[in-house]
Amino acid sequence: MRTPQDNDRRNHAPLLRWGLHLVGCTSVVLAVLGLFLPVLPTVPFLLLALACFSRSSSRFYAWLIRHEQLGPLVRLYLDGNGIPFKAKLKAIALIWVSILISTIFLLDILWVRIVLPVIALGVTFYLLRLPVGEETTPE
Predict the structure, then answer these.
(1) Residue 77: which of 59, 63, 65 has the closest Cα?
(2) Domain assignment of residue 138, yes or no
(3) Total count of domains within the chain
(4) Does 37 fall in a domain?
């Protein structure tokens, strides 16, 4: 359902809208892959997709929330009930593995090597503070 705010937002920044839509779709693909690959966290990618779709496409946002398999994975968080423990653990592990690989092997700029672990620490504390929701698995 479109609102006047949606139309205003779309007219002001079409490039931003398409960029957010692309990131949202990519996040959904990565989330689906995360259902089958243990190293990819599903729920954080779905939450990123929802954040992108909330600014770019109300239709895709509604589709993702109502999706039979993917919707239940994010409804806990959206309802304020946290995220499943396994999703929290996978997200924290992936954050730290990617940050450590980046800072040790890929980056030469000292201030970036310092800032990235600080950001990862903040995200880790945020995830740890979220309540643990009941585990929901797609059927």
Answers:
(1) 65
(2) no
(3) 1
(4) yes
